[in-house]
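queue> pop job 88
queue> type: inverse folding (structure -> sequence)
queue> payload:
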């Protein structure tokens, strides 16, 4: 699933690039990709907000995108048989797929689903008791918010968004925030151009998420896949399990086998009711077929480390409880022992810094190409030139900082915040590139919380705190972040011999279209069904309150400096550095730093058990059957993933058409 390295054996990143690949993007691929984006966005918003069914956008391999991919493949099989002249090539299908993967996250959680409610909730939920109307609202720049006069239908429903008066009330925040999103994602694209050679050509990371679209679209493997019995056996298992669970949700008399951790039978808390075992906290089992399938494609040491370090955090908490840190009356600093979230944040920083250090040669090449026009640094096969990548990164970073200053933040605060944020996202992307997790969260201690803990809230003036609140929405949940999808697109391009420059064009077009399509889709849903009614998902609307509740707490009860949390971050950096050192020095070392970084996030709480099962199956197959049998097993695990995804997609479509709330196949 990987191509030979194109780097110089001596490690010189300036080694002459291979001849540029030949599969360009076609006009019809662009048009079809653009047409699908608003359709997918509306499907996602309606399913997640109104039907309250399966999350279609929050997965690392988004369910809605896989469904579109299968539709296009099926249509192409028809074309190949009856109209071969008009059949799509693998590259065309993948261009369409890539345009969906890099755009769908914009309409998801942590992005548009949080942003639109944030800018509206400040008006609707302002009361004399919370003092938002006097303490917050007068100091927020009006061009960040919609016109209050057009918000009745947004909260009550029963109106159409696509009317002139409502559009006029929303047009300013739509343009402002769309520009912000496009610039923020543009910086990620520029960073990926600089990172691409190191991770894809030189380190040859596995990128497990890319295995599915590549296998399904490869001309020489699709027919053999479809005729492989193991594929259909794997496909049938999740279809039966998820269908029975979905029927049981509608008709409780239908028997089913629980596979999600939300089922009471898979919650293990009752086993840990005495001290110190109460330190285990919430502990659940899960048997997601698609998680087991994806784990089959990740390296064994990564799979082992993911579940091992999660269970290790449980052991840390048990020890802390035994030592009395969690006793009633313990101080806040003691009760946070052993600072799992803080350790994870430190690990995120360490991995990002180590990544930048190891690719320092490539970074210096990019800088020399930018500022000295060094001719021996070849970048003709990159998505775009290093000059544009470096200037785009710097210019975008400064533009985001300028935006933050325009809304009132002191100049150095956004410089630090965006630096930390992009460090976290680089690590988040690295985790996807090596671990291919079904979905991923950032650490419990996110960049803005880290800054508050390091200095105390009183270190920032009121306008800076209000500015923080305005941009808080994208720092709350990383599951729909676009940077991993962008780099995976470049990996797909390398594996399928596509044109890297056209990949960049597809990403840019999809990002711009996705930003505006997301506004249209989410506001269409809320104006029809009402953001303050019982007809929509209350968690998503409540997330719009989080920034204003947070800044209200900052203003009224400012937290003091918490150096103990920063010590936890420091410990995380040191431990992660040790793990990276051991990994680079000893081939037998089994512990991967990514497992340690992920252990302090919400990710493995839901996925550890299924990951353990997938890892164990792969280990046994390789140990007793060798790589030959491992390759033979690939169709079965692809079947697990596709069967799980298609079942979830079809049930979400059924719920959307009938108006019936259905079983949520994903996430919990």
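queue> result:
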């Amino acid at each position: 699933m990987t191509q030979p390295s194109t780097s110089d054996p001596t490690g010189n990143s300036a080694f002459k690039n291979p001849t540029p690949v030949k599969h360009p993007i076609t006009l019809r691929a662009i048009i079809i990709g653009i047409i699908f984006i608003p359709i997918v966005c509306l499907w996602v918003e309606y399913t997640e907000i109104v039907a309250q069914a399966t999350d279609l956008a929050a997965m690392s391999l988004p369910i809605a995108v896989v469904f579109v991919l299968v539709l296009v493949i099926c249509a192409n099989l028809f074309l190949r048989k009856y109209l071969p002249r008009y059949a799509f090539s693998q590259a065309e299908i993948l261009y369409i797929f890539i345009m969906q993967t890099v755009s769908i996250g914009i309409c998801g959680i942590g992005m548009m689903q949080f942003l639109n409610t944030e800018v509206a909730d400040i008006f609707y939920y302002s009361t004399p008791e919370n003092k938002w109307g006097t303490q917050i609202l007068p100091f927020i720049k009006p061009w960040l918010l919609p016109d209050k006069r057009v918000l009745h239908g947004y909260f009550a429903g029963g109106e159409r968004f696509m009317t002139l008066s409502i559009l006029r009330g929303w047009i300013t925040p739509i343009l402002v925030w769309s520009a912000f999103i496009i610039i923020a994602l543009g910086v990620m694209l520029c960073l990926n151009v600089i990172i691409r050679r190191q991770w894809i050509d030189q380190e040859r990371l596995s990128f497990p998420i890319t295995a599915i679209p590549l296998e399904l679209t490869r001309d020489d493997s699709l027919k053999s896949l479809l005729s492989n019995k193991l594929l259909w056996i794997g496909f049938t298992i999740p279809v039966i399990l998820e269908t029975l669970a979905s029927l049981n949700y509608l008709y409780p008399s239908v028997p089913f086998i629980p596979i999600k951790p939300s089922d009471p039978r898979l919650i293990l808390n009752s086993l840990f009711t005495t001290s110190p075992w109460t330190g285990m906290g919430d502990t659940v089992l899960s048997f997601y077929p698609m998680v087991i399938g994806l784990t089959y494609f990740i390296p064994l040491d990564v799979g082992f480390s993911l579940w091992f370090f999660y269970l290790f955090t449980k052991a840390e908490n048990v020890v802390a409880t035994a030592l009395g840190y969690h006793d009633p009356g313990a101080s806040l600093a003691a009760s946070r022992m052993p600072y799992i979230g803080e350790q994870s944040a430190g690990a995120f920083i360490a991995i990002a810094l180590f990544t930048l250090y190891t690719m320092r040669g490539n970074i210096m090449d990019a800088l020399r190409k930018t500022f000295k026009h060094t001719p021996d640094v070849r970048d003709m096969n990159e998505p775009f030139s290093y000059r544009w990548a470096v200037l785009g990164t710097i210019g975008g970073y400064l533009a985001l900082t300028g935006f933050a200053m325009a809304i009132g933040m002191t100049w150095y605060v956004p410089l630090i915040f965006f630096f930390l944020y992009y460090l976290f996202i680089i690590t988040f992307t690295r985790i996807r590139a090596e671990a291919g997790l079904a979905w991923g969260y950032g650490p419990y201690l996110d960049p803005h919380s880290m800054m508050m803990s390091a200095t105390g809230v009183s270190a920032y003036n009121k306008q800076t705190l209000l500015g923080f609140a305005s941009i808080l929405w994208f720092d709350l949940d990383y599951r729909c972040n676009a940077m991993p999808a962008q780099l995976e697109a470049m990996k797909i391009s390398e594996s399928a011999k596509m044109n890297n420059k056209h990949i960049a064009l597809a990403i840019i077009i999809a990002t711009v279209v996705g930003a505006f399509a997301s506004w249209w889709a989410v506001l269409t849903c809320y104006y029809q069904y009402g953001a303050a009614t019982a007809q929509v998902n209350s968690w998503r609307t409540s997330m719009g309150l989080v920034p204003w509740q947070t800044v209200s707490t900052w203003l009224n009860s400012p937290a003091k400096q918490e150096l103990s949390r920063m010590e936890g971050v420091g410990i995380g950096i040191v431990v992660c550095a040790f793990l990276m050192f051991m990994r680079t020095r000893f081939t037998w070392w089994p512990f991967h730093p990514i497992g340690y970084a992920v252990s302090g996030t919400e990710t493995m709480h839901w996925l550890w058990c299924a990951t353990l099962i997938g890892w164990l199956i792969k280990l046994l197959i390789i140990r007793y059957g060798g790589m030959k049998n491992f390759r033979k097993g690939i169709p079965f695990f692809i079947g697990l993933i596709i069967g799980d995804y298609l079942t979830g997609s079809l049930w979400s479509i059924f719920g959307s058409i009938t108006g019936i709330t259905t079983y949520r196949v994903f996430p919990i």
